[in-house]
Amino acid sequence: MMLLQYAANGVILGATLALGAIGLTLTYNILRFANFAHGEFLTFGAYFALVFVTLFAGASSTLGPFSFGWGLIVALLLAGVLTAGLALLLDWLLFRMLRKSNIQVTLVIASFGASLLLRNLVIFIWGSQPEYYSRNIAIALRLLPGLRLTADELFVLLVTAIMMLGLHLFLSHTRLGKAMRAVSDNPALASVTGIHVQGVIRWTWIVGGSFAAVAGVLFGLTVQIAPDMGFNLILPMFAAAILGGIGSIYGAVLGGLVIGLAESLSVPFIGPAYMPAIGFLLMFIILLVYPKGLLGDRS
Predict the structure, then answer these.
(1) What is the pLDDT of residues 77-108, one digit of tens each?
(2) pTM of this prediction?
């Protein structure tokens, strides 16, 4: 029965990793580089939401069994918009110019520098101490024998499912979504056929930044908000993207869930200190069998 609880915890962690890994995959697929500053988008999204939650604190009571009120939901939406704007600003100030060199390693190294800058900017503005959206105690609901989840954790799963379904419909049934898929397959050919590649790039940052913001808020809701949260999650998110098949949106989702489950289920056997190592060990083992990832070159 205890393993069932750990598995549920793993799904919740995996949902957060999946949302973050989607942005990494989009960036790699369309812009052709690994963006290590992506973790800071999670951090900024969480702190942007904290600002609005604080502003709405006096006018927002808790909703039923949740530890938060309508203020957090509004803050979640606003944080997504602001983080998308931050991603666009970073691209305009830094990555836009470096893309002209067509040297991918330059972009990767620049993203390291941007990550350090953004992380220290968070500490300068909000301080180094952990924060919480609410001090209310989240009541655990008994769903099955041996399985308890709080309403906040169920909210995380619901939001993740809605966003992933929305992204699937966006990529499959909208003109912009199809254009993004075309650019990811062949940017030169997409440009020749009349697709506005620069517009697609802007929307890549918007979608990736907003998904990262939501992931940061959901992680902050169920764990805590801290300046190093994005730094701590960036490597598991990369592992999820690589495990699922780098470049595959659906692979990033699957990889996030697999990594989350593996890390959580390892806790009763080896303790929580080795959780990240288990995720990477599983990634290496699976890549030996599927070198391109679980869904590599399939979606």
Answers:
(1) 999 999 999 999 999 999 988 888 877 888 99
(2) 0.92
Record the tokens describing residue 178, joined without a space. Answer: 């199809």
| DSSP secondary structure letter of residue 66 | S
Pairing of strands 147-150, 140-144: antiparallel
CA distance 247 to 29: 5
5/148 Cα distance (integer angstroms): 7
The phi, psi pair for 142, rounded to 5°, reads -85, 110
d(CA 180, CA 282): 31
pLDDT in tens, 14-49: 999 999 999 899 888 888 888 999 999 999 999 999
Distance CA 144, CA 7 (A): 13
The residues with which 141 forms a beta bridge, in sequence order, are 149
**For 119, what's the count of Cα atoms within 13 Å in the CB-facing half-sphere?**
19
In the chain, how many H helices and how many E strands? 12, 2
Segment holding 150, helix H or strand E: strand 147-150
DSSP 3-state of 97: helix
Q: How far is CA 246 from CA 21, 28, 50, 251, in A?
A: 10, 8, 32, 7
Cα–Cα distance for residue pair 265/278, rounded to 1 Å? 10
Written as one letter, the residue type at 153 is: E
Contact of 26 with 225, CB cutoff 8 Å: no
13 in Cβ contact with 276 (< 8 Å): no
Residues 6+ apart with CB under 8 A from 3: 265, 268
Record the tokens describing residue 7, joined without a space: 């598995």
